[in-house]
Amino acid sequence: VPLETAREILHVVPRYYLVDNQDGIRDPVGMSGVRLEAEAHLITGSIVNTKNLTKVMSEIGVDTNMVTFAGLASATATLTDTEKELGVVLVDIGGGTTSLCVYVDGALSHSAVIPVGAKNITNDLAIGLRLSLDTAEIIKRNLTPEGGSNKVLDPKNPQSKKQADEIDLHKLGLKDAPRKISRKAVIEGIIRPRLNELFELIKAELIKAGVGGKTPAGLVLTGGGSLTYQIDDAGRKILGLQSRIAYPVGLTGLVDEIKSPEFSTVTGLLLLAKRDNHPKSTPTFHLPKLSFNLPGKNSGKKILDFIKSFLP
């Protein structure tokens, strides 16, 4: 298969098999035939980026067995078999990039990486509100329906409406920031345009892939960026698909600390590793204890810091 310069194959994901020109076969094991062929989806990655990632892990004393596409790992941890069969679009929104996986008829049909992520929203907030990036991140993460006033609005009282629109930053512990900002200005003026841009890019990618109308199971959002306020609504309106925010499943044990869309990729990596090493075992992974006693000085903290650097 011809590849672009400086790229390598990360995954060969079978879509279906052909036995003596009979296509549409999901599992040919046990069948008789003369000629076996496969229709597969290839996922490639930058050789340079892969080497850099492997080098970073090596420097903290961790050997790299293989490199996995983040979107594929997140899909493993969040999508149901029914969604894959019906056809579904998985969008994993990280800090700097967004990974895309499209399943049609139970098989991976398309994958892509879009160079826009949740950090772009944080940057916009910092510039628009003239605040630090850390402060902007806190504001973004605390924009929920409960972030404003919980009081019942009086339509005849303009002051009541104004109070509901205000966000008290001092209640979020941001003493150095202005006391109050307009909720509508933040959401409609800064966050929503960036979300619209992201989903327009996703829409263009889906059109290019020719999968329009083949994903009735809708849109599944995960990754740290999926926690952005009203992101599911933005995706629903632009893509015309029902949407949900997905939390990782498949882990048992002490998993409360990682029961969040932020850890969908990490959860998927654990599940994929178990599947590859124990293909006949149950599709779950037991996490008895969160331990980072790895070789190298402060290696556990380094890994956590490294992972967090990719989170929004």
Overview of the structural elements:
- The chain has about 300 residues and is an alpha/beta fold.
- It folds into two domains: about 5-10 and about 45-115 and about 200-310, ATPase, nucleotide binding domain (Nucleotidyltransferase, domain 5); about 120-190, no CATH class.
- Helices cover about 40% and strands about 20% of the residues.
- The strands form four sheets. The chain has a five-stranded mixed β-sheet, with helices on both faces.
- Strand 5 (about 100-105) and strand 6 form a beta hairpin.
- Helix 4 packs across helix 5.
- The two termini are about 35 Å apart.
Major sheet strand order: 6-5-4-9-10
CATH architecture of the largest domain: 2-Layer Sandwich
Structural class: alpha/beta
Q: Say what the CATH topology of the largest domain is.
A: Nucleotidyltransferase, domain 5
Characterize the biggest β-sheet: 5 strands, mixed
User: How large a portion of the residues is in β-strands, by DSSP E?
Assistant: 15-25%
Q: How would you name the CATH homologous superfamily of the largest domain?
A: ATPase, nucleotide binding domain
Low-confidence stretches: 146-161
Number of strands: 12
How many structural domains?
Answer: 2
Overall pLDDT: 84
Task: Report the C-alpha radius of gyration, rounded.
Answer: 22 Å
- Helical fraction equals 25-40%
Order of helices and strands: EEEHHHEEEHHHEEHEHEEHEH
User: Given the structure, what is the number of helices?
Assistant: 10
Morphology call: globular
CATH class of the largest domain: Alpha Beta
Could you tell me how far the N terminus lies from the C terminus, measured between alpha carbons in angstroms?
Answer: 35 Å
